[in-house]
What does this fold into?
Amino acid sequence: MNRTILHIDMNAFFASVEQQADPALRGKPIAVVGSGHRTVITTSSYEARAKGVKTGMALWEGKRVCPELIVVIGDNRKYTYTSTRINEIFRDYTPEVEVFSIDESWLDVTHSLGIFGSAETIAYQIKARIRHSFGITCSIGIAPNKLLAKLASDLHKPDGLTVVKPEDVSRLLERMPVGELCGIGKKTAYQLKVMSINTCGELGRCDEARLTRKFGIIGPRLKEMGQGIDHSPVVPFGAEEEVKSVGHSRTLERDISDPGEIRRFLLQLSEMVGSRARRYGVSGKTVHLYVRYADFFSSWGKQTSLKRYINLSDEIYATALGILETVELTQPVRLLGVSLSNLKHHAEQLPLFEDERKKLFATQAMDKINARFGNMVVTYGSLVPDREKAGSHVIPPSWQPDGIKNLTVT
DNA sequence: TCTGGGGTCCTAGGACCC
DNA sequence: TCTGGGGTCCTAGGACCC
It folds into this structure.
């Protein structure tokens, strides 16, 4: 059956929200960053991008390429609030809204076309409403599936609208580099290049057996992707697969070697993991400890599985500490991470009431902020008991009010 | 003064059981 | 004691996304 899918990508989302909240920032090159000194640039405004500022750059590097760069410390509440409201707008057009990240969603409007006329009409209305309510722009791709809709939304930024009709697909893909497809990253693109496959057109015509020999189970999928085929459904909020792991990791403000300090930090991470696991209504059998050393490049992870399911912070901490004690640290530690997996979902955890659903949505949206390179210690730092925060020299009180107020997550 | 932090999925090898 | 094969669970590591 022919579907009509929209992919909506908020343009420079965090930066746009900040520029909207503070008129003094509009038209200026700004960068949204985390609060630590080891932060990177999460999002930059188009004015900053024009000067060469890129997502993922260290802050000092951004300032080097753009000395007039205005630095704004990110405020996750503002972004989750705005994202939640924007997704509510989407749901006025279809219940089939899949949140991909804090600033990207897919909409399956196949069954809404009769009401609203056309996908373009829906797209224009959504753009107008987002601009009117939040003063920010988005790029929208309209296509027969998620893969192509996402590709399409990337083609015109900012404030773009790109329609890919079924009959346009082969022409669009013929010269499209394979790396533009969501799912083909640097390594896969390189391996394909070695096979003399550079474009989607070439990928789509490649012998399937050849792809399977090289890539295994994803070989046939790669060929489909080259042809623009994607049957994956839009999975609305509430119908997603259950979460499979809950973890936190943090780069320390400075490298540490002192075992006591490392243990304190581990306890904080365990508390963050435990409280979120309890909020999600899950417990897990496997605890994973991750360590990155001061040289940045060397790191290791170790996991251990228990006979029973746990989600109490103390138990997670004890397990993580048990792993730590089996190794000898060879360098000062730059980053520590703890995660809980092999999860069991407790019964009756799905919120029934709309306001509870909204709260859970806000929580999950906040989680997805971190998928945007956020270094938002404060989000979960507030969950660390005061007794742990007091006297800690590891996670600093990193919250810095940025003067923009009167926004509450409901 | 370098370089975040959330996830998911896949592979490979070993232990253990039938 | 040897030859097997299948299945499950475990750990470790890598690729991908934002």
About this structure: Residues 34, 36-40, 42, 56-61, 216-218, 241, 243-251, 296, 335, 337, 339, 367-376 of chain A lie near DNA strand B (CB under 10 Å from a C1'). Residues 168-226 of chain A form a domain with the DNA polymerase; domain 1 fold (CATH 1.10.150.20). The radius of gyration of chain A is 23 Å.
